[in-house]
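On clarity, I found the account of how folds are encoded harder to follow than it need be. For illustration, here is how one protein appears when written out as sequence plus C-alpha cells:

:::
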Amino acid sequence: MKDANLADIEVIKYIIKRFGIRAKHKFGQNFLIRPDVLQEIVEAAEIKEGSHVLEIGAGIGTLTQALAETGANVVAYEIDQSLERVLSHTLESYDNVQIVYEDIMKANLIERLGNQDWHVAANLPYYITTPILLSLIQSELPLSIFVFMMQKEVADRILAKPGTKDYGALTLAVQFDCTVERIIDVPPTAFIPRPAVTSTVLKIKKREKPAITVKDRKLFFRLVKMGFGQRRKIFTNAMKGGGINEECIKEIMSITGIDGNRRGETFSISEYGLLADAWYDCIHG
C-alpha cells in the first residue's frame, strides 16, 4: 500500500474490511490510530537512517511503517501468522523491513541480532508485558534503548517511588539496570478496537553500569523478593520467612543501621543494596 498512512483510521478500516481482520484478544491486538503517538515512539527510540530496530508485534504494520520511514533497518516479530497476507500487502514497498513470524519469547535473538547495537520499539500485548520486558532488559543481547507502549498500570509500577502502592519488585528489577522515562499517556480512544485501559509509552535505557554496586546480584534480588513477597510484614519478619536465621538478621540490621521494623516496600534501591551486602558478609564471614 504505497503512500498509505497505516495510522489513518479510514485506511485501517479499509484494511480490516478487505482482509476480514478480527482483532485477537489472546494476542492483545489493538490498532493505533494516532500518528502523533507513533512519532513520539520513533523520536524516543532515537532512530535514524541506518539504525537497527527490533519491533515486537507488527500487527498490520502501523508502527513498522513509521520505523521504516526513518530509513532504519527494521526486524519485526509477529506471533500471528494469519497477518502475513496483510503485512505482505501493507509493507510491500519497504525493502528495509523483515517480518519474522515467530513468538519473540522463543526466538533465537542472539543469532538474529548479531553484534550490532539495536533499539527496541513495541506496542506490547498487556498479557505478556512483564515477561517480555524483563527477558530483554536482563539479557546480554546488544539492546540499548527500549520504547514500549504498555498498560499504564504497569508503567506506574516501573516508575514508582519507595513507600507508594505501585512500588515493588518490578520497579527495582527495571531500575537496577536501566533509566526510565514516561513519554506520553495514550487514551483508549487512540486505538481500534478500544482497550479497556489507558496506555503509556515508556523509554527505558540501559545504564552503562548498574544503579548500585552489590557484592552478589542474586542475593540482592532474593532479598527484594522477600521484602515485597510479604510486603505488609516488618522486614525482619519477612527475612525470617525467607529463611535467614535470627543471628544473621541481627548482624545485618546492626551493620546497616537500618530499622528492621520498617516494611520492605519503604526501602530504596540503595538500602536494599546495603542489606544485601551485609547478608553476603554474614554468609561468607
About this structure: The chain has a mean pLDDT of 94. The longest strand covers residues 143-151. The longest helix spans residues 269-284. Residues 217-284 form a domain with the Helicase, Ruva Protein; domain 3 fold (CATH 1.10.8.100).
